[in-house]
UniProtKB/TrEMBL annotation:
Transmembrane parts of this sequence: 265-284, 296-316
Pfam assignment, any one: CorA
Record field: catalytic activity: Mg(2+)(in) = Mg(2+)(out)
Protein family membership: Belongs to the CorA metal ion transporter (MIT) (TC 1.A.35) family.
Subcellular location: Cell membrane; Membrane
Major subcellular site: membrane
Name used for this protein in its record: Magnesium transport protein CorA
Gene behind the chain: corA
A cellular component term, taken from the record's GO annotations: plasma membrane
Length: 322
């Protein structure tokens, strides 16, 4: 489906055009077309192939989602695939794809999956006439910058959630629900890292090998996008390591707690074994046991048992077993 198809002349938004009229605009020197699409069908994409002179392999890739992020050159145009991401209502990362066809006087964006629209980005770019007159390269920069900024927002949100987990690490045990959350967080961070990493390779390739499409004054902006993507990649990896460390620390704490419980059980067991042995011995009812016939036999046995138990309790308490 066509979101919009707009002509820009000298950095100014001129008009919406039909696809059949694009070929006339492409012949102009100071004009370019910015076309936005969402999950177009094959018939429409083949129309674009004829109008813009796009390569058939790039058209095939743009029709199918779940492409690997990449940058490829086909003649005078460049085909780019980038993963987009945002947090959905359940605060889980939702990934989509944006495919870019970039030429000297056109930019085509093809969105697939769960992606945010680029209406606000287009409006923001249109306010900067001086940069927009540089051509579609600036529009591409605005979109890449928006995608990477979303990466950064996600890492900031996930960092807060991980901080909450760390704060509660020493006061709670990880139950199955918490472990599941940690596992999904690590998976999402890995996916986010894998989405940001190709951007760090795409931007320098645009700067070095496509000087005819990317003006010199845009290269610093693309390097800035590359730097931000690199930071996202590092932050995502650091947070994954933090979660792994949190799980290891919590498992160690659980092991220590279990050891403390075992020590207490062993200590009380040692204390209780004393009366068990003594009372079981005197419960055998042999008639020739001399202590059974003494007047102070019973209180003496009870007193000795209590003294031994108290001494053992004191020693075990001193050794921090109780």
């Amino acid at each position: 489906m066509v979101i919009n198809c707009v002509v820009y002349r000298h950095g100014e938004r001129e008009e919406h055009v039909n696809i059949d009229e694009v070929s006339d605009v492409l012949k102009e020197d100071k004009a370019f077309v910015w076309l936005g699409l969402y999950q177009p069908d094959a018939e429409f994409m083949h129309r674009l192939q004829d109008e813009f002179g796009l390569h058939e392999l790039a058209i095939e890739d743009a029709l199918v989602a779940h492409q690997r992020p990449k940058i490829e050159q086909y003649g005078d145009s460049v085909f780019i695939v980038v993963k987009s991401a945002h947090l959905d209502d359940s605060q889980r990362i939702s990934f989509g794809e944006t495919h870019f066809f970039l030429g000297k006087n056109f930019l085509i964006t093809v969105r697939h999956g769960s992606t945010e629209g680029y209406k606000e980005i287009r409006a923001r770019a249109e306010k900067n006439h001086a940069m927009l007159c540089q051509g579609p390269g600036y529009a591409l920069y605005c979109l890449l910058d928006f995608i990477v900024d979303n990466y950064s927002k996600i890492t900031a949100t996930l960092s807060e959630r991980i901080g909450e987990l760390e704060d509660g690490m020493f006061t709670m045990r990880f139950n199955n629900n918490t472990l599941e959350k940690v596992y999904h967080l690590r998976r999402e961070l890995l996916s986010l890292r894998n989405a940001a990493m190709p951007v760090t390779e795409i931007c320098p390739q645009l700067v070095r090998f496509h000087e005819d499409i990317i003006p010199k004054n845009l290269r610093a902006y693309l390097r800035d996008v590359q730097d931000h993507a690199h930071h996202v990649m590092i932050d995502a990896e650091d947070m994954r390591e933090t979660l792994a460390s949190a799980m290891q620390v919590n498992l160690a704490l659980v092991s220590v707690q279990q050891s403390e419980v075992n020590k207490k059980l062993a200590g009380w067991g040692a204390i209780l074994i004393v009366p068990t042995i003594i009372f079981s011995m005197y419960g055998m009812n042999f008639p020739d046991m001399p202590e059974l016939h003494t007047h102070f036999g019973y209180p003496a046995v009870v007193a000795i048992t209590l003294i031994i138990c108290c001494v053992m309790w004191w020693r075990l308490k001193k050794a921090h077993w109780l």
